[in-house]
Amino acid sequence: MIIIVDENDENTRLDSCLADMFSDISRSKIQSCIKNGKVLVNNLVKKPAYVLKEGDKIEFDKLENEQLILKPQNIDLDILYEDENMLVVNKPSGMLTHPTSNELENTLVNALLFKYGENLSNINGELRRGIVHRLDRNTSGLLMVAKNNFAHEFLAQQIKEHKIVKKYRAVLKGNYNGDDDRIELPIGRHPKQHHKMAVVPVCDGGKESVTLLKVLERFKEVTYVDLTLVTGRTHQIRVHMSYKKHPVYNDTLYGAGQGRVKTEEQVLQSYYLKFAVPVTNQIVELSIEPDEKINKVLSYYRNRRNS
């Protein structure tokens, strides 16, 4: 099996990355396989603590426990685009993109397995069948899925070269200063809370991260914005907005707290994708309307402003 490390897994230890992908296998067994040369990174034997870089190629024989069987589940999929090599799905808020060691059901991958069976890429392991990039559980919106490994590598290369345009909508706490902003702040793993990301100096492992912001609508307490990802680091928008003292509305992980309008965590939506499809290189642009969370928050503040 071959795994190509993407922006989401870079700066992660080799053993931690594999343990996350193969949650049924103990960390000690994975470390033993690495130490015994059964796992190669860029054709070289590395230590379990090796810190992965974007583009690294991890190669190994099958590690999965044969008893681990992911359950295909008949969950409705909102498919916006599909061809013989890939599809784009509108992931709802509240759904995990792929299973974890704690949750093996009700994820997007479970739904994909029911509809497509083995016709999904397996570059990133069985728990991430078809998954090229991810959205956080409570972030809704457009997500690309690869039906085969060729399509997966084709799309992953576009992501690496920043050729795919990804735009988001968000409601931020507070009145954002200025109508446009270019936020260039390096992001890395939080030094103390490892489940979080943070603005981290490059000398301490932070990676270049660029977000473009445009204000769409202002209110006294919140700001509705359009965000374009130039890079795609884990939690990038949430970290950048938190650092700027305007966290995404209801993003309790990054300091927003619960606002006047109760929603399922962060009010953030991936609403626009522009990419080249595998084989033909045809350019596809997709856009969706604001989701239920965004409409709920905006309706509340618009009504207050007009009352």
- The CATH class of the largest domain: Alpha Beta
> In the CATH classification, which architecture of the largest domain applies?
2-Layer Sandwich
Any idea what the radius of gyration is?
Answer: 20 Å
Distance between the termini: 60 Å
- Portion of residues in beta strands equals 25-35%
Question: What do the pLDDT scores average to?
Answer: 91
**Number of structurally distinct domains:** 3
Question: Which shape, going by the Cα principal axes?
Answer: globular
Structural class: alpha+beta
The CATH homologous superfamily of the largest domain is termed: Pseudouridine synthase
Low-confidence stretches: none
Secondary-structure element order, N to C: EHHEEEEEHEHEEEEEEHEEH
Q: From the 3D structure, determine the CATH topology of the largest domain.
A: Pseudouridine synthase
Relative helix content: 10-25%
List the total number of helices. Answer: 6
Largest sheet: 9 strands, mixed
